[in-house]
Amino acid sequence: MESFASSLSKLTGESTLLYQEIARKVEKTKGIKTINFGIGQPDLPTPQRIRDEAKVALEKGYTAYTPALGLDELRSKIAEFLSQKYGDKIIKDEIAVTPGAKTALFLAFLAYVNPGDEVILFDPSFYSYAEVVKLLGGKPVYVPLHFDQGKGFYYVTDELSSKISPKTKMIVYNNPHNPTGMTFDADLSKTVAEISQERKIVLISDEIYDYFVFDKNFWSVLQTPSWRDNVIYINGFSKTFSMTGWRLGYIVARKEVIGKMGILASNIYTCPTSFAQYGALASFDSFAQVKEMIDLFRRRRDVMYNELSGVKGIKVYKSSGAFYMFPDFSEVLGAGGMDSKSLAVKLIEEAGVVTIPGEVFPERVGKNFLRLSFALGEEKIKEGVSRMKLFVEKVL
Ligand code: PLP
């Protein structure tokens, strides 16, 4: 009988998908159509130019391995684009193209985390950070985000500083933030950059939602003049260009770090998919579509916020980033004697609405919250929230 590696038992799998699975079963057995607020991707097609360029690449037979760190042209384009955006001279050798931002994160953790190392995460945060840290024998250490209905979510500097120990290897910062839908105030982003640099801690800055910013100024960690000292910047094509299935992300870090990523990449996956990379070359000419998408998402956000504001028993902050809202359901949970997981299951079974329970992100703070994505049409948003409202009224 084979025995699996003990590290594997530390992984729980993608729990956000579990709720989609329950929804599929409920649709089948009860014959109802659910409204899906569980979605973590834009619902629009990839811009035409990008699809066309990938097709051309296929036709031309550009289907062989590329360099492990990605096509030189694509790395140069990313470097040029970020240089213009952030006023720094970023070069090709400071870029690694990866199969999705998740792989970029995986390489970054793999490159630094030794068993016993502590990695500071914000609570709540994207579930995969903690999973990978644990897989590598590291220990996630959580800094809570606090919630204020008017201001949104924020961390307290002293709480962050107090979690730093001699074992701290990394801090992971995600802005705009999944699952809260927060674009953090610039001073919070600057502080995390300063603290990590002063204390000589590697800072992973996951900025994959950087185009999904509403009513706020976004400050990138790449605006720190000395980012090369300790920053591993993560971004990708998945969300901005509606390319989740293409699997293309990238890392920005100083040349020496990118060299290590190249060694890992060539041993793990050889290279990102060739024709997907050729398609991505056209993404830099597709910002008109991105702008249209962001305008659409802003309107959807407003609709969702207005609808949720009319539901008694929940507290909601008007999301300023990504495409999520993270309302506080503590009153409903208290009245119904439920936790966020059982509430999410009941909402699917009894109201036909899919949400993601805050507990999967992955610690304590989220336990009173549900994550709702507004990556779906306005009519569906209205219908879904009205179903939730009926359910909540029965519970209260
Ligand atoms: N980082 C965050 C915060 C995310 O929410 C996601 C996807 O949901 C990713 C990274 C992964 O992106 P990709 O699809 O490019 O792997």
Automatic annotation (TrEMBL):
<feature type="domain" description="Aminotransferase class I/classII large">
    <location>
        <begin position="33"/>
        <end position="387"/>
    </location>
</feature>
<keyword id="KW-0663">Pyridoxal phosphate</keyword>
<dbReference type="InterPro" id="IPR004839">
    <property type="entry name" value="Aminotransferase_I/II_large"/>
</dbReference>
<dbReference type="InterPro" id="IPR015422">
    <property type="entry name" value="PyrdxlP-dep_Trfase_small"/>
</dbReference>
<comment type="similarity">
    <text>Belongs to the class-I pyridoxal-phosphate-dependent aminotransferase family.</text>
</comment>
<dbReference type="InterPro" id="IPR004838">
    <property type="entry name" value="NHTrfase_class1_PyrdxlP-BS"/>
</dbReference>
<dbReference type="InterPro" id="IPR015424">
    <property type="entry name" value="PyrdxlP-dep_Trfase"/>
</dbReference>
<dbReference type="GO" id="GO:0030170">
    <property type="term" value="F:pyridoxal phosphate binding"/>
</dbReference>
<dbReference type="GO" id="GO:0006520">
    <property type="term" value="P:amino acid metabolic process"/>
</dbReference>
<dbReference type="InterPro" id="IPR015421">
    <property type="entry name" value="PyrdxlP-dep_Trfase_major"/>
</dbReference>
<keyword id="KW-0808">Transferase</keyword>
<comment type="subunit">
    <text>Homodimer.</text>
</comment>
<keyword id="KW-0032">Aminotransferase</keyword>
<dbReference type="InterPro" id="IPR050596">
    <property type="entry name" value="AspAT/PAT-like"/>
</dbReference>
<dbReference type="GO" id="GO:0008483">
    <property type="term" value="F:transaminase activity"/>
</dbReference>
<dbReference type="Pfam" id="PF00155">
    <property type="entry name" value="Aminotran_1_2"/>
</dbReference>
<protein>
    <recommendedName>
        <fullName>Aminotransferase</fullName>
        <ecNumber>2.6.1.-</ecNumber>
    </recommendedName>
</protein>
